[in-house]
Amino acid sequence: MGKLMMRIRQKLCRHTKLEFSAWRHEDGMWFLYGTCIYCGAKLRGIGFTDKCAEDLKNIMEREGYE
Description:
66 residues; alpha+beta; 2 helices; 36% helix; elongated
């Protein structure tokens, strides 16, 4: 019963809060791997380009994040 409830929770979850455990850079792309805090689903990879990473860095610097 516990496994069924976990599967239902993972299917309905929007994975809005993630805890990242690993990352890698390959061919101009960054890949992040982690787990959803709310439902425990393991995420295999969120990818974004170097340009996107640079834009994110610039925005964070502008808004005062270090």
